[in-house]
Inverse folding.
């Protein structure tokens, strides 16, 4: 008999997607997953993007990285893409989603309610989830709260009409957010604590516009060719779990000791580098330029948030003194 699944993602040693498992039908809310077109055209684009070291490749790495959260036993995290219109933020996320299916259906905006967002994250486990244009959210504080709950892996505790507690939603994977403003600007507009949110995010800034011809080529390819590689990637992960764990730990160690990453950034970046290595091994890609670009961008973000993440004793004392003075005046 055919089984109906209310979510995608890992279930024991199976990965629930239409392309990776037979005899399973997926609920209507999970439309968009599936394959179309030619494997070779999809692979040719992936190879071109990764070997050029293009920022657009972050989408592919996030998509594969989301599948590694469970086998690596690491925390969920958020990738934040910021930059002006035409810089490639949405194209990056569309490329990541194209590994799974039709990006048009899978790409979500910020018009979801809090409950709708919880349902989306609960049903889409172990896959990349994209929320485009965070700055258009009606309630920014609610949007930032999503970062907290997603990172912790659980939704808010809610009661039903009879005051019984509902099942708490469980999340697992990588959430990608895009916005024209950088994260600090968005956090300043909300009621959230800046440092808390920054510890859960790996942010990449897109500073240059991408040529229109290249963008058009990308969209033409992924509109007609998608979801053909994901089974090969799942099979590779299933067959190489121990090797993948060893590589991940080596990346964490190197990023921490050689490059000075900490506060969780070394783990998030190591997930993406491990995903890159999987694609490199599976498809015989030259990944050197992509590794260098990823580390360069992450180092820029580390420097940008250093003051917020590393409160020195002097800064803490200064803030306490200011707090006391403010309250004396009141």
């Amino acid at each position: 008999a055919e089984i109906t699944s209310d979510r995608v993602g890992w279930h024991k040693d199976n990965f629930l997607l239409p392309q990776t498992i037979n005899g399973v039908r997926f609920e209507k809310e999970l439309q968009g997953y599936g394959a179309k077109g030619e494997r070779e055209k999809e692979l040719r684009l992936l190879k071109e993007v990764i070997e050029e070291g293009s920022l657009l490749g972050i989408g592919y790495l996030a998509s594969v990285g989301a599948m590694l959260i469970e086998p690596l036993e690491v925390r969920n995290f958020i990738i934040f893409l910021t930059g002006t219109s035409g810089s490639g933020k949405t194209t990056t996320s569309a490329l990541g989603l194209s590994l799974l299916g039709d990006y048009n259906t899978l790409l979500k905006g910020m018009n979801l309610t809090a409950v709708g967002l919880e349902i989306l994250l609960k049903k889409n486990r172990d896959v990349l989830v994209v929320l485009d244009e965070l700055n258009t959210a009606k309630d920014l504080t609610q949007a930032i709260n999503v970062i907290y709950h997603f990172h912790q892996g659980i939704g808010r505790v809610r009661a039903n009409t009879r005051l019984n507690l509902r099942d708490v939603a469980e999340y697992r994977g990588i959430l990608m957010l895009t916005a024209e403003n950088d994260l600090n600007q968005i956090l300043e507009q909300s009621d959230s604590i800046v440092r808390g949110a920054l510890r859960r995010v790996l942010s990449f800034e897109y500073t240059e516009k991408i040529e229109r011809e290249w963008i058009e080529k990308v969209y033409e390819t992924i509109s007609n060719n998608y979801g053909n590689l994901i089974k090969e990637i799942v099979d590779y992960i299933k067959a190489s779990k121990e090797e993948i764990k060893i590589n991940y730990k080596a990346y964490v160690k190197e990023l921490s000791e050689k490059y000075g990453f900490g506060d969780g950034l070394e783990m998030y970046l190591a997930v993406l580098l491990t995903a890159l290595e999987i694609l490199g091994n599976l498809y015989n890609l030259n990944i050197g330029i992509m590794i260098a670009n990823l580390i360069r961008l992450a180092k820029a973000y580390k420097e940008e948030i250093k003051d917020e993440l590393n409160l020195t004793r002097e800064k803490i004392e200064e803030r306490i003194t200011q707090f006391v003075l403010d309250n004396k005046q009141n």
Observations:
- The CA atoms of residues 15 and 234 lie 7 Å apart.
